[in-house]
Design a protein that fits this description.
The chain is an all-alpha fold. The protein has a domain of about 25 residues. About 60% of the residues lie in helices and about 0% in strands. The chain is built from 1 helix and no strands.
Length: about 50
């Protein structure tokens, strides 16, 4: 009776460490890309015209 090999009562297996890391990395990358896009759109008006 090891706790690591036991399934959940509803029959679904817990995601493996690799799967959890993969999904966390994907979410982090999406968040960083969204931040970069927001920064790029915030800087765009400065590049087009003269502002002092």
């Amino acid at each position: 009776m090891t706790g690591k090999t036991a399934d959940n009562p509803d029959g679904k297996k817990a995601p493996s460490r690799e799967d959890r890391l993969k999904s966390a990395l994907k979410a982090n990358l999406a968040r960083r890309k969204a931040q970069a896009r927001a920064r790029a759109t915030a800087e765009t008006p400065k590049a087009g015209g003269k502002e002092d």
